């Protein structure tokens, strides 16, 4: 699919559509949708901004490429004056006091936020069922999960309720729902986009990521949000990715894939066969393909969740009903803290906090947490060696197809294992893109750190190959 952003931009300039009509159409679709993707609509502000864009066009003023483009925001981002619920009972009445840096950059470019989107509470889940707003339903088959944790964002893009959406990816939370709903979803290199104003889950792997229907739209939105931010010391200055650069794929010579991912007993037979068929098509284009050795997927999952649970226990310790959220008063302050967190956090969030506190507790931290840190370093070193041999690593996004709504809640371990092919790239802090091709849940394209441009290049190559 060609760029929707560029297409709508031209329509606005040519006055074949008005921005107010465009925004109102999207708001109507969101209001009437039955996929449980909406936490709150930003109707008044969105229409006010749309009217300003129409006035500029009527006055003959130039508008930017993103100006007037309606987009969605996963409900874990701050947008001043709007609800920021994290799809949780604890924060269901909380309003943002400021705006996240990544979102502010889009506002500065003229894009119009129209919806805060449903997701797993605090990003804890892989199905968007752990939410007070009801399970997000898959865009293709509403009996299946929408994926998570950015499920509402993915479904809204897939159903054309938003032109693009901004999700958050910690261990696959943009890439997996993108795969489940047949769209593009990018986890950029860690630090390329500021995390300031994103509710922290696991700070060492949290990334701001765009979801869209084309590689070009991913590129446009990525450029708009990228850059150094004094409010996030992990950020760095990055170069703009030009459209002409990602159309030239001649410098991609070698592709690798992890044979243990494909030989795993957990992978569906059809996904395995489709992936290997895609590999053959890539070979037919003259690209060398190499089999790579890597950590077993269960080691990746256990390492990721060890560290992620430890970090989320620390990050969520501030949420006790005193400074943020709905407080339940009890006989004393300690009991008030206990009952508030017990009643207001979801079962999945409590499971991760308890697990994280155990990992960090005296007697366990040396045995578990420090080993997890050592494994993360080993995983990063393994990636560095791999990218000395190949330009791109290709993998399935998930080992299996989307489960039915309700199944993941019955089996949390199965939900964790659905992240088996995404969490390793998060631990390595690598740029990784889901493309809606090659298998039923797509393919995952990964490059070395800071090579986001190469990921987009190869995605363009795949459009004409598979």
Automatic annotation (TrEMBL):
Organism from which the protein derives: Flavivirga amylovorans
Ranges of residues in domain Amidase: 32-456
Xref: Gene3D superfamilies: Amidase signature (AS) domain
InterPro entries to which the protein is assigned, alphabetical: Amidase, Amidase_CS, Amidase_dom, AS_sf
Name of protein: Amidase family protein
PANTHER family named in the record: GLUTAMYL-TRNA(GLN) AMIDOTRANSFERASE SUBUNIT A, MITOCHONDRIAL (PTHR11895:SF7), TRANSAMIDASE (PTHR11895)
Membership in a protein family: Belongs to the amidase family.
UniProt xrefs under Pfam families: Amidase
